[in-house]
Amino acid sequence: MTKIISEAEFENEVLKSPQPVLVDFFATWCVDPDTSVLTNEMDHKKAREILFGSNILSYTKDKLVRSKTLQSKTASDKGHCVYLETETGREIKVTDDHQFFTQNNWKEAKNLKVGELVAVYPIFEKLYTEKRTDIVLDEKIIRTLCSSVGISNQYLPRYTERLKRKGLIPLTFDNDKILILARLMGELFSDGNLYKNKSNNYREISFSLGQTKDADQIIEDLKILGFECHRYKLRKREGKILGRTFISKEYKVKCCSTALWLLFRALGVPEGNKTDCNYTVPKWIMNGSQQVKREFLRGYLGGDGPKPTIRLQKSKSRKSHDHFFLNDVEFHKREDLIGSGIRFACQIKKLLETFGVKVRKVFNEDEKYIRKNKTKTKIIHIGFHTDYETGYNLCKIGYCYSRQKQLSALYVGEFLRKRLYERKMWLEKYSDLIMHYKKGLSIKELAERFGISKDTIFGWIKYMKQPMRKVHKEKFSNWYRVATKGLKEGLVWERILKIDPIYLPTVQVITVDKSHNFFANGFLVHNCPPCRALAPVVDEISESGLIKVVKVDVDEAKTVASKYRVFSVPTLIIFKDGKPTDSRVGFASKAALEPWIQSKI
């Protein structure tokens, strides 16, 4: 590895060196410090908040992976930068050499063109983080619970100490693990279970998942909490409906920690078969932050929630059009506990509506089949509106522990985002058009200026009716085929609408290991400008012994960089007898650099 020298070392290492020196002036320019960087598939932080060693989301070999941050610092006096805006309003500010993933591989921002496609991950707005330190759960609540679930006081210290060591009691709203607990609880309220066997004092937390990826996600979250679990195993179940035989597959994940069982029970998870239980959404979730509510809903919707889809709806009265389709949330409740089930459904409705998801109604219907124990149940429904805003807002919540539903939400959500943005622009164009009409422009002039037919404009002006929506002609199936070509894991192509030069006083420098890329405001960007590409070439030349080689970070050595007029990076300068003899700018191969160096020394 080539030595990086400071400004103070430059004179001794370069100017007073008895042998020629090749100086590599480099920089690691990056993004606006206020840019949102994805830390996982649903959460993000401002670039300035990313710390050394933090895990952030990357994309490599058609997979989303977690990568570690090797460097994160704020650099000043950057100057020349680029502002990009896409066709759905995504924005980003970066240094002009920052690279974006395009259909023609990686390209620097300064070389991108309007109309070009760049890869994005459909992220949505960051939720406001409330600074709350109030206690959700403490040792006293655990102690009270133990007596009611049959755990002897002599074993209580063992469990409470274990929870304390793992930082789970006392549990406060500012605990980093509370979001994991919230989404695991959402799953336990749907496809999970707290099981207890009184005869042998056995307790188990179990989860039923649809795919191995979903099971792996549960296991990873449990490990972060500090608990190991049994590896998942495949279970096949055979049944009959209306005379037809079906086989279903599920992956079972089990954790047999009594301490964790007590924690979930104390947090409000019902014990046993939920069809036969009287329960509600815990108060700490109903009164929690938006982040806590969203994580609980993500876990719950991953189990009982419907998968969002776009279907082509045919009509005799008008042309076929895309229709957002969403099934009801459904769960079973024993007939004598129907009141409890309705209350729970109404709480889910209230949580959904805080995120702009409009619920049409909550109702119940009789179950056609009688259970083996001869008891009757009813099916409780939470029915949704199917307008685009509701669909988009539901997709923004997302689904946890159900990769299949989450992928559908990413693609459907991105399609709906595009449609909603078009409608917004359509209404803004209407307002602008009416304003110009009032200033005296004729219908013909307005048609030429705004690119709208004279008949449409005449209708708007005559009846003074604001257009409700712009009718889109793009079908979801066609959009999906083009938008996902060559991409996986929810990524899509987005068209650049605007490119402007800007000035940024500071940028955040972020370097990532292995994959060397991350997601900034949803854009897939590289942390390796030409400086990084040149680095291994310079290292090889240094190891060959052809010439002494050092590196200088222009951010840390501004006086030296200014003195030798280093205006672009990377810049290579050969010093001989303390004076610069020649220089070259940009990336070059080892084969090109070696003869150049030999000719100068």
Keywords:
601 residues; alpha+beta; Glutaredoxin; Endonuclease - Pi-scei, Chain A, domain 1; Endonuclease I-creI; five-stranded mixed beta sheet; five-stranded antiparallel beta sheet; 33% helix; globular
The level of helicity is 25-40%
List low-confidence stretches. Answer: none
Strand order of the largest sheet: 1-25-2-26-27
Oligomer: single chain
Largest sheet: 5 strands, mixed
Task: Walk me through this protein's architecture.
The chain is an alpha+beta fold and 601 residues long. Among the domains are: 3-27 and 532-600, Glutaredoxin (3-Layer(aba) Sandwich), CATH 3.40.30.10; 36-121 and 491-526, Endonuclease - Pi-scei, Chain A, domain 1, CATH 2.170.16; 136-272, Homing endonucleases (Endonuclease I-creI), CATH 3.10.28. It contains 17 helices and 27 strands. It has a five-stranded mixed beta sheet. Strands 5, 6, 7, 10 and 22 form a five-stranded antiparallel beta sheet that branches. A hairpin with a 2-residue loop joins strand 23 and strand 24 (523-526). Helix 2 (139-148) crosses helix 6 (258-267), helix 4 (178-188) packs parallel to helix 8 (290-304) and helix 10 (388-397) crosses helix 11 (403-438). The longest helix is centred in the C-terminal third of the chain and has 36 residues, at 403-438. It is globular, with a radius of gyration of 30 Å.
